[in-house]
Amino acid sequence: MTAKILLLPGDGLGPEVVAEAEKVLAALRDRHGLDVSWEYGLIGGAGYDAHGEPLPAVTLEKARGADAILLGAVGGPKYDTLPKDKRPERGLLGIRAALGLYANLRPALLYKELAGASSLKPELVAGLDILIVRELTGGIYFGKRSSAVVENYSVGSHTVAQARVASDTEAYSDFEIERIVRTAFEAARLRNKKLCSVDKANVLESSQLWREVVLEVAKDYPDVEVSHLYVDNAAMQLVRAPKQFDVIVTNNIFGDILSDIAAQLTGSIGMLPSASMNAQGQGLYEPIHGSAPDIAGRGIANPLATLLSLAMLLRYSLKRGDLADKLEQAVQQVLASGLRTGDIAAPGEAKVGTQAMGDAVIARL
Ligand SMILES: NC(=O)C1=CN([C@@H]2O[C@H](COP(=O)(O)OP(=O)(O)OC[C@H]3O[C@@H](n4cnc5c(N)ncnc54)[C@H](O)[C@@H]3O)[C@@H](O)[C@H]2O)C=CC1
Ligand SMILES: CC(C)CC(=O)C(=O)O
Ligand SMILES: [Mg+2]
Question: Which value, to the nearest 10 degrees, does the dihedral of the CA atoms of residues 291, 292, 297, 302 take?
């Protein structure tokens, strides 16, 4: 049966990088018989501009009916002053919640050709291959929020007549922790059988529950070596000796931050793909980067994170591991040929734009 894909370009550089993914899909269909069709939808600022909502109902309906979704990025300065519930980022959080996409897989892989582009010394990152498993539908991004003006507000012994006070809540249930931790253990089993759980259990109740559940689930995976790190130490270890990690499992906000760090180890955030899966096996695939307003619209963004996200889509949702391998090999060959977008170019090295990079990958498919 023809697989239905929903393309959600979003904002900023989103349409530029998703356009390259569409070209790749067309090439896989025409040259390799991939049985696929696709349509577009609006999300983020683009959704707000057209429908007054960052996640228009029509987009969600299309998403529910799709076999897989490929998203660019959302957000931008134009939308930063909108009411909070209309902000583009709420559209992204909204689709993750509505589809129950709790399991976010963020592989950080160093292509050997990019060892020089990493901020770390080549010997620290050579062969780097980490998988960050991030809980994606709970925690502080979804907890109760409030913001108010409070009279006679006290912090310790200090009281002010009036203060603007805002709060966000980090809350997790054992059920939410258990399912993402199981995802991570299963992934570790297929890799080097090492799982590091990252939390802040020395301070946070929610992290204490997190650690308790990890220890309980670990009993079902005696073949996997488990360790625990506080998030501050984990951030340091990622830039000190990143190759000590195999699979990292962590909550929504820590995973968000640690994956941006891991991205830079591989040369650029423009290289890191992700897959977000729900309990039914439906997936949304997206680069881990944002809409990059500083470079959007100039045709210079790196499309490889999006093309590698498409490879994950082919592997996990369309069960075409053969074509995923082909696409990943094409990316590797393009890097080996010396092509570089600005984010991965060494000082003084020639740079190519988004379309030239996409075309070079397609030429190798
Ligand atoms: N998944 C999403 O849609 C996300 C959206 N955002 C939104 O994106 C907007 C910008 O956020 P920032 O914090 O600046 O993060 P960002 O990830 O958009 O950009 C951070 C830096 O990385 C660079 N960069 C990002 N992607 C690149 C690519 N493909 N090629 C080359 N360079 C790339 C940017 O030019 C910038 O210097 C905000 O509105 C934010 O809320 C941020 C993160 C994720
Ligand atoms: C809206 C944000 C939570 C998006 C983000 O930074 C991410 O998912 O990495
Ligand atoms: Mg992020």
Answer: -100
Query: Which of 71, 87, 89, 105 for a ligand 2 pocket mutation test, highest count of atoms within 8 Å of Cβ?
Result: 89
- Interface ipTM: 0.99
The 3-state secondary structure of the chain, one letter per residue: CCEEEEEEEECCCHHHHHHHHHHHHHHHHHHHCCCEEEEECCCCHHHHHHHCCCCCHHHHHHHHCCCEEEEEECCCHHHCCCCHHHCHHHHHHHHHHHCCCCEEEEEEECCHHHHHHCCCCHHHHCCCEEEEEEECCCHHHCCCEEEEEEEEEEECCEEEEEEEEEEECCCCCHHHHHHHHHHHHHHHHCCCCEEEEEECCCCCHHHHHHHHHHHHHHCCCCCCEEEEEEHHHHHHHHHHCHHHCCEEEECHHHHHHHHHHHHHHCCCHHHCCCEEECCCCCEEECCCCCCCCCCCCCCCCCCHHHHHHHHHHHHHCCCCHHHHHHHHHHHHHHHHCCCCCHHHCCCCCCCCCHHHHHHHHHHCC
Is residue 75 within 8 A of residue 294, CB to CB? The reply is no
**CATH (residue range 103-139+171-273):** 3.40.718.10
Would you call 141 a catalytic residue per the annotation?
Answer: yes
Q: What is the pLDDT of residue 143?
A: 97
- What spacing in Å lies between the alpha carbon of 10 and ligand 2's midpoint? 13
User: Is 290 touching ligand 1 by the criterion CB < 6 Å?
Assistant: yes
Determine if the pTM surpasses 0.95.
Answer: yes
Q: Which of 308, 309, 317, 303 has its CA nearest to residue 4? A: 317
- Residue 263's CB is within 10 A of a number of other CB atoms, namely 21
Q: Domain limits of the chain?
A: 1-101+278-365, 103-139+171-273
Q: Annotated catalytic, 30?
A: no
- Distance between CA atoms of 16 and 303, rounded to whole angstroms? 8
Express each pLDDT in 154-167 by its tens digit.
999 999 999 999 99
Q: Which CATH class is domain 1-101+278-365?
A: alpha beta
